[in-house]
Design a protein that fits this description.
CATH superfamily of the largest domain: Ribonuclease H-like superfamily/Ribonuclease H
InterPro entries: Ribonucl_H (IPR013520), RNaseH-like_sf (IPR012337), RNaseH_sf (IPR036397)
Protein name: 3'-5' exonuclease
CATH architecture of the largest domain: 2-Layer Sandwich
Strand content: 15-25%
Keywords: Exonuclease, Hydrolase, Nuclease
Distance between the termini: 33 Å
Strand order of the largest sheet: 3-2-1-4-5
Organism: Phormidesmis priestleyi
GO molecular function: 3'-5' exonuclease activity; nucleic acid binding
């Protein structure tokens, strides 16, 4: 196994070598790419109104795709219609959740790698929809791929890694964003491009790319195995390259600088242990 599953819950807190082994493995696997459109941001008080599921692999390309509008039996806010273009008139004649989700389950429960752009969002909504039906849906950490996280590692200095902006950046031939079918296709095209890069480039090149990633203070602290306050002081003293996140203005650090300090720390500890022998 690439990494202990519990540890792998926080991908950004893993070392580059561990991440490289994981992505090498994922690049050889078959994917189930998913996107949902919803009535709000939180699964416990919002519902899915559209889902698209696409099965593909680098070896065989796209194998299958299914998309469904779902009658959520709740009001669709006007701002959601403004973002997605999905109107009440479109979804209310559609089948309800209790018909659609059991139909989707065989596609979602395969051994394929569950893939989405901002995976935590789609995964949480899907788990909640199944929970409402009394069905447990779970994918282990090593069978999940978030293309946002992978794009942060391979496209570290792009100003935005939102799906609409990545579609523009790569000139993907897909229709309007914020519809499940189009976004699922775009997510697959992004995964295909990035995972092909994982397959084609050598370890040294990829590790250098990974090193350019900006990681959050809490992830740096996990790598260094200390509290956030201590990690921030350590990294500032070591003059590790840093910046503030664009939205929340929180400190972020270049991965390579954090890992360099980690390995120096490990070397010192090993040297101290050897001197005691």
């Amino acid at each position: 196994m690439v990494a202990h599953a519990a540890k792998f819950q926080g991908q950004s807190a893993l070392l580059s070598q561990e991440l490289l082994a994981y992505y090498r493995q994922v690049s050889k696997s078959s994917l189930t790419v998913v996107d949902v459109e919803t009535t709000g941001a939180l699964g416990h008080n919002a519902r899915v109104i559209e889902v698209s599921i696409l099965q593909a692999s680098l070896a065989d390309g796209v194998e299958h795709q299914e998309s469904y509008l779902i009658n959520p039996k709740v009001k669709i806010p006007e701002f959601i219609t403004g973002i997605t273009g999905i109107t009440p008139e479109m979804v209310y004649p559609s089948p309800p959740p209790e018909e659609i989700w059991p139909q989707c389950l065989p596609l979602l429960q395969t051994e394929r790698t569950f893939t989405a752009h901002n995976l935590d969002f789609d995964y949480a909504f899907i788990r909640t929809e199944y929970k409402r039906l009394g069905t447990r849906f779970y994918k282990p950490p090593l069978q999940k791929l978030c293309t946002v996280i992978l794009s942060r590692m391979l496209l570290a200095d792009l100003p935005s890694r939102s799906l609409p902006n990545l579609i523009k950046h790569f000139k993907f031939d897909v229709s309007t964003s914020h519809r499940a079918e189009a976004d699922t296709k775009a997510c697959w095209l992004l995964a295909q491009r990035l995972l092909s890069q994982i397959q084609d480039e050598d370890d040294e090149t990829l590790l250098k790319r990974f090193g350019q990633q900006w990681i959050r203070l809490q992830d740096a602290a996990k790598i260094l195995n200390c509290r956030k306050e201590e990690a921030q002081q350590i990294l500032e003293t070591a003059e590790v390259e840093s910046r503030l996140s664009y939205r929340q203005k929180l400190p972020m650090y270049r991965r390579w600088g954090v890992e360099q300090f980690y390995y120096e720390q490990q070397g010192e500890q090993q040297g101290q242990q050897m001197s005691l022998l």
